[in-house]
Amino acid sequence: MSMRGRISGPTYGLPHEGVFCTPFPSFCRYSSLSELMPASNSIRILIADDHEIVRRGLVSLLSSRPGLVLCGEARTGREAVVLAEQHRPDIVIMDIRMPELNGLEATRKIRKMLPKTEVLVLSLHYSDRLVQEIVDAGARAYVLKSDASSELLTAVEALASSRSFFTSGAAKTLIDGFSNPASTQAPPLHKSLTAREREIVQLLAEGKSSKEVAVALGISVKTADTHRSNIMRKLEIHSVSELVRYAVKNNMIEP
C-alpha cells in the first residue's frame, strides 16, 4: 500500500538563467537558455549517492521517462547541498548514507534553503525509527533501494504532482503513528545535538581529526575540540569507538 497525501509542492518551470539541464543521461552544464530550452513542464533532478554504479542505475531508470532532466550528480552530502543551491532542482534523490554529511542532514539543509525543492530518500534498510527521522528531516518520499525499479518513477511522479510517496511499510508506520501518537517512541538521544554537532559526529566517526574537522567546516581547531567535548557529554560516550557505533546506529555512516 502506498501512502499519497497532498503536500505543498514546487511549481515546475524553466531552468534558472545560466544553468542548462540536459535530458538523461547527460550531465548538467552551463549554457545560454537561448541555445536549447527543455519543455516548460520538465522536472529537474539532482542525484546524490556515493556509489557510481548506483548513480548510473538511477540515471538509466529515470531516462526511460520523458520530461525528466538531470541537473547534477553528487558523491557526498555536502556536495549535494552545494549543487542544490547552484542548480535549484525540483527533486533531489538522496541516499541516506553519504560521506561528509549524511542524507538526513543534507535533506534538512536543502529543505531549509530551498523549500520548494522536494527530496526523495533512498535507503538499503528499513526501520520505523528511520521513517520518522526521514519525515522530520523534511523529505516527502521514501523508497527502499530494493524497490527502486518498481517504485522510484512512481515516487518521482507523486512529488511532481505535489503528493507524497512512502514505500508500503513506511506508509503503515506513519498511519499507525498518526492514529496512535501515544505509541511513538521517545525522541532519540541525538535530538539534543545541534545541526553543527551532528555534522561533527559524522566527520569524527569517519576518522577525521579535530584539525581536519576544523578545515572541513571552516572553524578553529579549538572550536572543533569544544564541540567534540560537548558531543561526548551529551551522548554520554567516552571514546571514538563508541562514537563510531553511535554514528552507524543512527545512519550517519556505513557500518
Give a brief description:
This protein is an alpha/beta fold.
Secondary structure layout plus pairing:
Layout: E1 22-23, E2 43-48, H1 52-62, E3 68-74, H2 77-87, E4 91-95, H3 103-113, E5 118-123, H4 128-137, E6 141-144, H5 148-160, E7 165-166, H6 168-179, H7 195-205, H8 210-217, H9 221-235, H10 240-249
Parallel strand pairs: 2-3, 2-4, 4-5, 5-6, 6-7
Antiparallel strand pairs: 1-3
Helix pairs in contact: 2-3, 7-9, 7-10, 8-9
Would you give an account of this structure?
This protein is of the alpha/beta class. The protein folds into two domains: 22-179, 3-Layer(aba) Sandwich (Rossmann fold), CATH 3.40.50.2300; 189-249, Winged helix-like DNA-binding domain superfamily/Winged helix DNA-binding domain (Arc Repressor Mutant, subunit A, Orthogonal Bundle), CATH 1.10.10.10. Helices cover 44% and strands 13% of the residues. The chain has helices at 52-62, 77-87, 103-113, 128-137, 148-160, 168-179, 195-205, 210-217, 221-235, 240-249, and strands spanning 22-23, 43-48, 68-74, 91-95, 118-123, 141-144, 165-166. The protein has a seven-stranded mixed beta sheet, with helices on both faces. β6, α5 and β7 form a beta-alpha-beta unit. The longest helix has 15 residues, at 221-235.
